[in-house]
Description:
alpha/beta, TIM Barrel, two-stranded antiparallel ribbon, 10 helices
Amino acid sequence: xxxxxxxxxxxxxxxxxxxxxxxxxxxxxxxxxxxxxxxxxxxxxxxxxxxxxxxxxxxxxxxxxxxxxxxxxxxxxxxxxxxxxxxxxxxxxxxxxxxxxxxxxxxxxxxxxxxxxxxxxxxxxxxxxxxxxxxxxxxxxxxxxxxxxxxxxxxxxxxxxxxxxxxxxxxxxxxxxxxxxxxxxxxxxxxxxxxxxxxxxxxxxxxxxxxxxxxxxxxxxxxxxxxxxxxxxxxxxxxxxxxxxxxxxxxxxxxxxxxxxxxxxxxxxxxxxxxxxxxxxxxxxx
Length: 286
């Protein structure tokens, strides 16, 4: 494939004792509409997942809530037995009662069941990176993290991460178990997690920005300065938005997701886009 290994141009990043290319793949959108049910054409999504790895994405991010369960099942169907370079991260702690609901559930018994379900669907004996999807306001954060730390000690989890957390929650999690990643919303135009990113930089923790292009409406792509720089560089707005994330911090691990082969290849090329100091200054402006 002519675009093979393009994400490697962004360099690598470590997750504990694991090393991956610094432009990952978010597998949320391979599920059906509204991230609910199976896609209309599973064969197309299976081919897209295979191509994502062939392009050089060695970090795949998913969750049991994507589908629910569908994204994990498709990853296993497409790629198992897994290439040794591939690191699969999944998450637990959100439940889907309908296509429009994402409810927090951090009860230890739920997290234990969720992890066992992910292991079965992904056909693994141990998850390389298991992330607590979101703090549950009805369960003490330390109770949820303590349950995951126990599962790590039991050998079911290699490394732990957290998602949708504040600096204080990250600090609390790190007092319970080693944390190798944080996954919060972050993109050009949404930087409310700047303090969390700074904490990750100080601690050498990978920061995984979810919604790196601004969600379903791709808000990052409509920012005028993103469009202007893209036109000047003969790049696409998506490539500029991803290149900004890569330049923003050495601990950044973007995970753009798509169900389009064209967009998959387009996003992979972002690893080769180089922004000038003036470009970065313009994009830093709020």
